[in-house]
Description:
Elements: H1 2-28, E1 33-37, E2 46-51, E3 54-60, E4 68-69, H2 72-76, E5 78-87, E6 93-106, E7 109-118, H3 123-127, E8 132-134, H4 136-139, E9 142-147, E10 152-157, E11 169-170, E12 173-176, E13 179-186, E14 189-195, E15 202-205, H5 206-212, E16 218-227, E17 233-248, E18 251-260, E19 265-266, E20 275-279, E21 284-287, E22 291-293, E23 297-298, E24 301-306, E25 309-316, H6 320-323, E26 331-335, H7 343-356, E27 360-364, E28 369-372, E29 375-376
Amino acid sequence: MVKNMMLNIMKSKAVLFLLLFYSTLLIAQKQIKDTISFRNDLGLIIVPIQFNGVEKNFIFDTGASVSVGFSWIKEELVKTSKTLKITSSSRKKSRLRYYKSDSINLASARITKHRILATNDSDIFSCYNIDGVLGVDIIAEFNWIINYDKKYLIMYNKDFFPENLKKMHSVDFDYDKRRPYAYLNFGNERLRFLLDTGATFSDIYLKDYSRIQNTSHTKREAYNGFFDFTGTLNKSKSSIMRFPIVTTKDININGIFDFSKKSSKIGNSLWKNNTLFLSLNSDMLYTSLKEIKELRKGYGCAFVYDNNKITVVKVVVDSQAWEQGLRQGDAIQMINGKTFEDFCSLQKFQKETSNQGIDLAITLKDGAVIVLKKKKVL
Length: 378
């Protein structure tokens, strides 16, 4: 009888184990189709994500090989012994430490035993309540539709492909060593561009440009200022270029590219009013539009609050701002009659006025006022 009881218990345990095993498989194979609304502050895709039940706002960044969080990570997550040496876009080298999260929830998907790098807070990201960067270490686990017009993502299992893919247009695309690349044809030259949803605008690297500088295009010089993810402000002189015809497979692109000393990349501005389908593991990138023309409007300049004053951080040569005497580094007294006493209030004011398209009245230090209208950049 004891032997029979033991056999029954063993059979019951075996049945329970099989049930648990198949339940786990069913959960793992659950079809995911989640719609995630996103913000596009700063021209970036910002999505909600939960770490151990606490909601954070992360940049959806295909240009990042790993996910990164800011200073909150050191307080809320568990430190590991693993570190990674990185170089930022300002060429600043640093060694970041990995932290462990018990549970990450991205819509209905639950990710466990994942490590995330910790870095310091950034002024510009703090202004917009951005807590970190979602890299391809997580993005590659799913397939995505990115609707730039209506500002939503649809997340699928990485083996699921929507029916309307047949109506979209394929980009020459490759996902290699955790880096997604699109290939664009400039005449007879085929150049590789990082697909970087963590960037607002597109860039052409110096060495790539040297191969296509005789290709038909228009160009304007600019003095630029930009922030990398460490919060470092960088200043440089560069060019803004428009190429009339760039192709990738059957797609025609009339795009605008900034000159870069580091890499060639495609930012979000190229895809305005477009919808993308992205499957990193299947080397697939599709667009809803076959003819893509990028528009870029602005005031020809931008400002930053730095060292207790408003300073011109960017100005386009021969723009209305340039013609009225503005230069990079100039101090400004007021903008539209407003003074600013911190970094965030000026950043948000510029973003709001640009979205509204209203004129900017710039009061210089000597009291002179110049008025700038929002116009086509190139």
